[in-house]
Amino acid sequence: MWGIIISIVMAVIIGVIGDALAGHNMPGGIIGAMVAGFAGAWLGALLLGNWGPVIGNFAVIPAIIGTAVFVFLLGLVSRLFRQAA
């Protein structure tokens, strides 16, 4: 039970940090930050591997970098959709 709670809290923290690094383009508030944190952790582990400190099954540094990349790309896609509409 505590593992799930720690993973969710870490996803939110990583999502907020990644959003701040990418320029605050993440919609959805805390839920959006949590989703970005999980997606960024996956992307960071895929691109950079699992190195650095691990908290709540997240390799923190690759997760933050992956989240920043994810939020940046999401911001670009949302701007493209706004311009097309």
Automatic annotation (TrEMBL):
Its main location: membrane. InterPro entries: Transgly_assoc. The keyword Heme does not apply. The keyword Membrane applies. This is GlsB/YeaQ/YmgE family stress response membrane protein. The lineage of its organism: Bacteria, Bacillati, Bacillota, Bacilli, Bacillales. It is a multi-pass membrane protein. It comes from the Bacteria. Belongs to the UPF0410 family. It is found in: Cell membrane. The chain crosses the membrane at residues 6-22, 29-48, 54-77. One of its GO terms (cellular component) is plasma membrane. Keywords: Cell membrane, Membrane, Transmembrane, Transmembrane helix.
